[in-house]
């Protein structure tokens, strides 16, 4: 099995892709510690899967200063965690052409939650993961629109683009350690992240959640480190961009290793 982990800590497990993936991983026999803001949904997840397979911790990753304490606590409580799955985030629309309507504070909060919190979590978890003498993993949920951005959602696209670059660099820097770095890149998926558009409209757009989870889970089992599901526009053009970009990155990384 190319996904060798036994206990996954999954952050953002109370809704959407995070909850569906937590369910799938638990159903496949893994132990899951679900993390999210909504205690009632965490409790429901544990009841559904049973305390032998599921546990939960309530935490709001928007509180970045609290992340080191959260990580210290959760790794002491669950020392057998061998994979951290970072999935949480939110999305809004911004009209930057009209400063009176452009909510800068909300924009910056979105970037912070979707990107800065992931960097802080990675920084806090790495000493724990690298200290183990068995394979460990860091899994990030990115987005296809990190490569081809969607005009109305600049904060979300920018945060996911930053995350994609961070993951590429992190993977290369950890290539000689026991930590495997995996990025899942979804297309537009039918989840509640789009409820701000109206529940019926928002959840009616994109790939059905179950279809996406099937594809992403298969990618995890196959051992891929970059799991791209769907595309933005033409699959041929999109995949060509991805392939050439990864090749260019690998070439530059090889050159940079000779200097640093």
From TrEMBL:
Protein keywords: NADP, Oxidoreductase
Alphabetized Pfam families for the sequence: adh_short
InterPro entries: NAD(P)-bd_dom_sf, Sc_DH/Rdtase_CS, SDR_fam
Molecular-function GO term, any one: oxidoreductase activity
Keyword NADP in annotation: yes
PROSITE patterns: ADH_SHORT (PS00061)
Keyword NADP applies: yes
Superkingdom of this protein's organism: Eukaryota
Family recorded in the similarity comment: Belongs to the short-chain dehydrogenases/reductases (SDR) family.
Protein name: Oxidoreductase
């Amino acid at each position: 099995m190319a996904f060798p982990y036994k206990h996954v800590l999954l952050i953002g497990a109370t809704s959407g892709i995070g909850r569906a993936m937590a369910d799938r991983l638990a159903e496949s026999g893994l132990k899951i510690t679900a993390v999210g803001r909504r205690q009632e949904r965490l409790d429901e997840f544990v009841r559904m899967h049973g305390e032998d397979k599921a546990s939960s911790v309530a935490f709001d990753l928007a509180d970045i200063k609290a992340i080191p304490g959260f990580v210290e606590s959760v790794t002491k409580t669950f020392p057998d965690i061998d994979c951290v799955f970072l999935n949480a985030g939110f999305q809004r629309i911004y009209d930057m052409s009209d400063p009176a309507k452009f909510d800068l504070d909300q924009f910056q909060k979105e970037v912070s939650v979707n990107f800065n919190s992931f960097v802080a979590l990675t920084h806090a978890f790495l000493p724990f993961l690298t200290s183990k003498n068995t394979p460990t993993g860091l899994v990030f949920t990115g987005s296809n629109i990190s490569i081809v951005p969607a005009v109305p959602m600049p904060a979300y696209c920018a945060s996911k683009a930053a995350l994609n670059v961070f993951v590429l660099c992190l993977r290369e820097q950890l290539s000689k350690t026991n930590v495997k770095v995996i990025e899942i890149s979804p297309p537009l998926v039918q989840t509640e992240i789009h409820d701000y558009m109206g529940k019926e409209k928002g959840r009616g757009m994109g790939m059905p959640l179950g279809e996406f989870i099937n594809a992403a889970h298969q990618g995890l089992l196959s051992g891929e480190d970059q799991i791209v599901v769907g595309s933005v526009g033409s699959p041929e053009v999109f995949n060509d961009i991805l392939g050439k970009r990864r090749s260019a990155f690998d070439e530059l990384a090889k050159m940079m290793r000779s200097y640093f």
